[in-house]
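hey m, so remember when u said the tokens were messed up on ur end? i reran from scratch. heres the input so u can diff it against urs
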Amino acid sequence: MNLERKHVRLAALALVASTALVTAGCAGGSASQPNESKPEGEIHVAVYGDAAATAEEAAAERFNETSDVKVVIDKLPGDDTYATSVRTSLGTDNAPDIFMTWGAADLTQLIDAGAVLPLDDYIEEDPELKDAFIPSVFDEQVIDGATYGIPMRGVAPTFLFYNEQVLADAGLEPAQTWDDLLTQSATLSGAGVIPIALAGADKWPTQMWFQYAFAREIGNDAVAEGLAGDAEVWESDGSRAALDNLQGLLDAGAFGTTFDSVGYSNQGTTALLSQGKAAYELMGTWNYATLEGADPDFVAQNLGWVPFPSLDGGSGQSGEIAGNLSNFYNVSADTRYPDVAVEFLKELYSPEFVADQIGLGNLPPTVDAGDAIAADETLDENTKTYLTFVVDLVAAAPTFQLSWDRVVPTEQKEALTDAVAGYFNGSLDADAWIAQMQSITAAD
């Protein structure tokens, strides 16, 4: 399960703050010393207030059984307002001691402002704070050689889900190559089936196709350079080849004719796949739980999954993946109880926390996740097979590119998803799309 980090990705998080704003916020307390004005005998952890928060609440309960300083879980709305709430509180007496982020790009601004506690001294004292986690995930928040975050919640790569009965009826096996997708699109369309369900109305599912088209054609290393501001990446021959490949799928009718009006949040693609109206869907790990909630019989009897197909002649490494690496916990630099805050982070690799994550359908970012899944007697065999597939997919991946809209600054996220949607619906041609990406990713 051990992985080696093969490249340095520029990734992102939704927490966006200018250095000036954070520095100003830190005026209420030292960014390098404990803030004695914060609540006595407590550390506050700001979490997404969704179903997954139950695992963090259980971890706090366990921790509080033996700690004099108590952990308080503050559940914030699980949407884009989370980042704003945390950002505006950093440096004040009301700031969380521990908060969630997604990646590295804008975290650098907080680090430069002295708002985030480096964790290397604590890792030296307890190497498990690093060694317990998948290296390719952990390294996401190692910035300029220093560690600022510990992975938590689930690893969520994207891959192809498929309807086994639909493929069988058409005499097809799951696609292994990009050419398979093209040829199967003609066969499936002829059988009256949408080859690939796409929630184009939500735009971010369309982005997933760009992520893999570019990973296969130019590789994740080059993609990372483009997202970091290298304009030449987007106008390269490989970039244009990736766009041509996507256009080939569009021209083949791979996504049907109404994908722009189909959504994921309203379970539009869920219905298409589970009801046999579509053969494939490119989606993240969470899709299993979504499909199971909508149609458990379909999941048990006819749902299949396969890594994203390879591309003959592409420059990408075999097995490169894309998706969401993990959430991370960061510690505020001016927490009143830094030792206690870091001690709580050790819960993130405890057997109890790992088991709770698996129970929620998440793949924990720990190196022993595979063993924990195999030993979990509460899982049905189908779910265990599925989670084992995800473990193996991540373990074999030479690189793991964070979703593009998590890489660019938050203020550019909408422009990025508009660009990928525009190329698919024909409102942007290749030249216009390239110009858009160069503008969106332009280095400051």
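this time it looks ok to me. The first strand starts at residue 42 and ends at 48. if urs says something different then somethings off w ur setup not the seq
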